[in-house]
Write a structure and sequence with these properties.
This protein has 905 residues and is α+β, with helices and mostly antiparallel strands. Helices cover 28% and strands 19% of the residues. The strands form twelve sheets. A ten-stranded antiparallel beta sheet has the order 1-4-14-13-12-11-10-7-6-5, covered by helices on one side. Strands 9-8-16-15-17-19-18 form a seven-stranded mixed beta sheet, sandwiched between helices. It starts with a strand and ends with a helix. This is Disintegrin and metalloproteinase domain-containing protein 20-like. It is found in: Membrane; Secreted.
């Protein structure tokens, strides 16, 4: 840990490194510069022990004042590029941290290793003056980075320091690049400054828990020369189980997402031996981030991004003397205006009060956060960063409201990601009225809340926020507007807590109001504090029994965007075809989300061409022996619930149905390694699953793998053999081959960081012995499934489904397959009856038979007639043929005799 203080500046820091000489960072400002500084591979400078030549105090003061004026003038004229190096070098010379350029060679050769710095001659008053100048210079430099983002390059040649003196300046550069540039153009409100900072490394004092959550932790911090011990308790139920985040597409369509946010990273507590201290921290961003309040001092802490040593920076927030203080926008005139607006509104809070527990019960306030477009841009268009910042704000504000037994939670977050939906006027009262109208007309339709707060990146003259008083639970008036231009968590949290106090009925504190501190949260002039006054308690008592405050938030509540045209069928909509153009092409649905004339449905497995499919039409086929088919019922577009045979039904030799699957011994191996693979012998299971590592185990919890007991080894990780094909698995998956004797055991690994299903764990329902199966990595008897579908239940004419209802064979009807029917069950829908012959069909068949018989008779008759005719014709031809044959034979004999005669001749 290094401090920004002359008293500790001379201590060596062997772990510090300096960038190489003469390297410049190209780009647009400090972000690029900081990256170059961190990643430079330049050689480090040697440690020097030379001290700056002593200077007269008056000369130092004069140089400091001149430097301050010149630096301010430089930044005023926006000439940062050439002055930044000189700015720092002059500052460090003044503080005795760097040799003056004109004296460096002489001083380096003559100075003693134990020489004193030039600050040795300064009086306490002069030292304080230099400290104040340094603080102003740092603030001026920070402001320049915020206002001047367009210079082309920054050279680090003039930033180089001896290693033992470099830590606080290097941190300043890193801080400017990683914090100020991220929150570019954001300022502290007038009247507040970051008075000092320190770099420290928190230490966890409590033993690291292994299998239990960190409910209570103790941390040590070292700053301002002291060690402080923080006792922290984890705060739950801050983040809802389903946190809705509403954004808008480029086309202006409202979008809804439920990203995951941790609920176990928020802590609150106190500092040991500081009875009036308050600590509110989160560890959601990779380190400690939050506020520490020690008596009248306020500190903010946040992690150094990318620090390999878990470094954090602590800022001390101070009020600037003679600064113009910012105020709440709820002036006396505005209060009178609100009183006129609300005079006809009945106050129902007191009517719901009970006599017994009017104070003991916790009250719950659900806030809808609306982020204005410019504020979203300052978060670099990052929804996650935006949401985490809002959660940090409500976490800190929760610590303010805890003494009142009020628990704050986030109802949801809406981000105006494309544009603002109202005009953000410089007059905060006008902006509040416009936002309230928008909330009443639009926001409450999709995001219900007790109050709605708009966070705008806007300066409302001297106002930091405004709200309607006593309007919690009121959908018409429960609104507030907050100016969010600060980088300080403590400041924005106190502003939010102040305006929420107005919603809860709290007025501004008067002179006679007290909270034990100089200022209280509801003071009309903004001050960073953590206490409500006695007046605020009194005002809150009148509103604390408002109906919406008495019920805790529903942890399972899920919001849905209800609007015709979003292509999602909401309640009271028959269909939703989208835009006007899309609906013109839809044959079933109209643009007003109703069916066209004569249409029964627009979608669904049992809907075809805008009409229900006939009863009995199969809509989900049977996939395996243990599965059962489902049928449309003719009155709905939806296919019935997927049903299957009751668990424990025999489906193969010693294999039983489980959750609709019939898993044989080799099923899983074939699925992973191909058709030729099969389950390995028992020795592979015994050897591998007894190891208790990622390749062989019976499950894991909190990163610890459990060895399989001997009776459960077949239910650990699948072991295969006869593998001829290596599958293509998900990224970071591993295939392992282990030889055991003459066997090769093949398996896969799995670890908790993988986001895919574990295909290597033995599937529930796999056989592990006669009349046994694997369930939850244990080999159990099938009898534990309580299979009770005997022959008499369905009269041997069907099977039982997973609801223990009979699924009948065709020809028999549910519920008990006793009477004739078409099969199926009361859960799967009725199968389509087999077609019966109608009278017309029967007549057609009879007519067809008569026609065929008649035709056959005619053909036979004709055949007989022609048969005798052919016989007579054949006889005549035969006689002719015989006479012709006689003549031919005689002629042939004569020709043969002639041929023989010729041959002899």
């Amino acid at each position: 840990m290094e401090r920004k203080s002359p008293a500790t500046a001379g201590k060596p820091n062997p772990g510090s490194r300096a960038a190489g000489d003469g390297h410049c960072a190209q780009g647009s400002g400090g972000a690029a510069a900081g990256a170059q500084l961190r990643s430079s591979g330049c050689g480090q400078l040697s440690v020097t022990t030379a001290a700056s030549p002593a200077a007269e105090p008056e000369q130092l003061i004069r140089r400091a004042l001149d430097f301050k004026n010149q630096g301010a003038q430089c930044y005023k004229e926006k000439k940062c590029r050439e002055a930044i190096g000189k700015y720092h070098r002059a500052l460090l010379e003044l503080k005795g941290l760097l040799l003056a350029q004109e004296d460096s060679e002489e001083a380096a050769s003559t100075a003693s290793t134990a020489g004193a710095t030039g600050l040795g001659k300064l009086s306490d008053e002069q030292r304080q003056l230099l400290d104040s100048i340094e603080i102003d210079c740092y603030n001026s430099l920070a402001e320049s980075f915020l206002l001047e983002m367009k210079y082309e390059k920054v050279c680090f040649k003039d930033f180089l320091l001896p290693r033992k003196k470099t830590i606080h300046l290097l941190w300043l550069l890193m801080f400017l690049s990683n914090f100020l540039i991220v929150t570019a153009r954001q300022m502290l409100p007038q009247g507040f400054i970051y008075a000092s900072y320190e770099v420290t490394i928190p230490q966890l004092l409590t033993p690291k828990p292994r299998q239990q959550e960190r409910q209570n932790v103790t941390c040590l911090l070292h700053f301002e020369g002291k060690n402080i011990i923080m006792h922290l308790t984890q705060k739950k139920n801050l983040v809802p189980k389903h946190l809705p985040i509403f954004t808008y597409s480029k086309d202006g369509d409202l979008q809804l997402d439920y990203p995951f946010f941790r609920d176990d990273c928020y802590y609150h507590g106190f500092v040991q031996d500081r009875p009036f201290s308050l600590v509110t921290l989160s560890i959601c961003s990779g380190g400690l981030k939050g506020i520490l309040q020690l008596e009248n001092k306020i500190y903010e802490i946040e992690p150094v991004q990318g620090s390999p040593t878990f470094q954090h920076v602590i800022f001390r927030l101070e009020e600037k003397e003679r600064a113009l203080q910012m105020r709440c926008g709820l002036t006396q005139e505005e209060q009178k205006h609100q009183d006129t607006m609300f005079q006809n509104i009945e106050n129902v809070a007191s009517k719901t009060a009970s006599k017994g527990d009017w104070w003991l019960r916790t009250r719950y306030v659900e806030i809808a956060f609306v982020i204005e477009h410019e504020r979203y841009l300052m978060f670099a268009r990052n929804e996650t960063v935006t949401a985490l910042q809002m959660l940090d704000i409500i976490h800190i504000a929760n610590s303010f409201y805890e003494p009142l037994s009020v628990q704050l939670s986030v109802a949801g977050l809406e981000i105006w990601s494309q544009k603002n939906f109202i005009t953000i006027s410089p007059v905060i009262d006008s902006t509040l009225q416009d936002f309230n109208d928008w909330r009443r007309d639009f926001l409450v339709n999709h995001l219900k809340s007790d109050v709605g707060h708009l966070f705008a990146y806007k300066s409302f003259e001297f106002s930091l926020g405004s709200a309607y008083v006593g309007t919690v639970c009121d959908e018409w008036m429960g609104s507030a507007v907050i100016s969010y231009k600060t980088t300080s968590l403590s400041i924005i949290s106190s502003i939010f807590a102040h305006e929420l106090g107005h919603n809860l009925g709290m007025q501004h504190d008067e002179q006679y109001c007290s909270c034990g501190k100089a200022y209280c949260i509801m003071a009309p002039v903004h001050e960073v504090t953590d206490k409500f006054s006695n007046c605020s308690y009194t005002d809150y008592f009148l509103t604390m029994n408002a109906p919406c405050l008495l019920s805790p938030p529903d942890p399972d509540r899920i919001f849905k965007i209800k609007s015709c045209g979003n292509k999602v069928v909401d309640k009271e909509e028959q269909c939703d075809c989208g835009s006007e153009a899309q609906c013109k092409l839809d044959p079933c649905c109209q643009s007003n989300c109703t069916f066209r004339s004569g249409v029964s449905c627009a979608f669904g497995e049992c809907c075809d061409k805008c009409q229900y499919l006939k009863s009995g039409t199969i809509c989900r086929k049977k996939t395996n022996y243990c599965d059962l088919p489902e049928y449309c019922n003719g009155t709905s577009e939806w296919c019935p619930e997927d049903v299957y045979m009751q668990d424990g039904a025999l489906c193969n030799n010693y294999v039983y149905c489980y959750h609709g699957n019939c898993i044989s011994e080799d099923t899983q191996c074939k699925m992973i390694f191909g058709f030729s693979a099969k389950t390995a012998t028992d020795i592979c299971f015994r050897e591998m699953n007894a190891k208790g590592d990622r390749f062989g185990n019976c499950g894991h919890k909190h990163g610890i793998y459990h060895k399989c007991q001997t009776k459960n080894t077949l239910c650990g990780r699948i072991q295969c053999e006869n593998v001829q094909i290596l599958p293509s698995l998900e990224e970071r998956s591993t295939i392992i081959q282990v030889p055991l004797g003459d066997k090769q055991c093949w398996s896969t690994d799995y670890h908790s960081g993988m986001k895919t299903a574990d295909i290597g764990a033995v599937t529930d329902g796999s056989p592990c012995g006669k009349d046994k199966m694997c369930i939850n990595r244990k080999c159990v008897r099938v009898s534990l499934l309580n299979y009770d579908c005997n022959f008499t239940k369905c009269h041997n004419r069907g099977v039982c489904n997973n609801h223990k209802h009979c699924h009948c064979d065709y020809g028999w009807g549910p519920p008990d397959c006793l009477k004739k029917g078409h099969g199926g069950s009361i859960d799967s829908g009725p199968p389509q009856p087999r077609k019966r012959l109608t009278i017309i069909a029967k007549a057609g068949i009879i007519g067809g038979i008569i026609y065929v018989l008649s035709s056959a008779f005619i053909l036979v008759s004709v055949g007989i007639y022609f048969r005798y005719g052919f016989i007579r014709l054949f006889r005549r031809l035969r006689r002719r043929t015989e006479s012709s044959t006689t003549e031919v034979s005689a002629q042939s004999i004569t020709e043969m005799k002639y041929i023989k005669y010729v041959q002899k001749s």
